[in-house]
Structure of HTH-type transcriptional regulator BetI:
Amino acid sequence: MPKLGMPDIRRPQLVRATMAVIERVGLHSASISLISKEAGVSTGIINHYFGGKEGLLEETMREVLRQLSHSVKSRMAALPQDAHRERINAIVAGNFDGYQTENKVAKTWLAFWTLSMHNKKLKRLQRVNEMRLLSHLKRELKALLPQSQAELAAHSVAALIDGIWLRGTLNPDGIDLDTAKRIINDYLDMQLASSNK
């Protein structure tokens, strides 16, 4: 039995190992055996603390989501509360942060999205992430647009973020943050122009 505190020591090591194995062999072939070898721990530790592969993927995604939340919040904290366009761009930039676009993280995201359709715990994580993004966007957009238009624009910007991220992840050249910002700002310009007519 590991000594007290072992999970906190092992957790980052196991998260990194999970992403590395998923990047190398894909989710389907990412066995507990391969992950434990990558992390340098016994398979028993993974099974004991995480209940197997799905539990370890859940913990891995929690860490990815913590990183995402930290990136968005720290960018927004550096801006005035009334700098709404800049704050929207901070939300966008946080979603395309360097960590989020690393190959191993991107492949883990793709695995997570696939599994979340059939796993209640992962689906709940995905829903929390989606609601957090929409909440940030709605808060800023409601200061710029009528409420009903702001709601629709928030969903549209979220869809653009996901779509651009997915296309960039599948592109050998990766994600281009400047292009992502330009596409989203073009959309926002159209929304603002139509609300001022």
About this structure: The chain has a mean pLDDT of 89. Residues 53-77 form the longest helix (25 residues). The radius of gyration is 19 Å. DSSP finds ten helices and no strands in the chain.
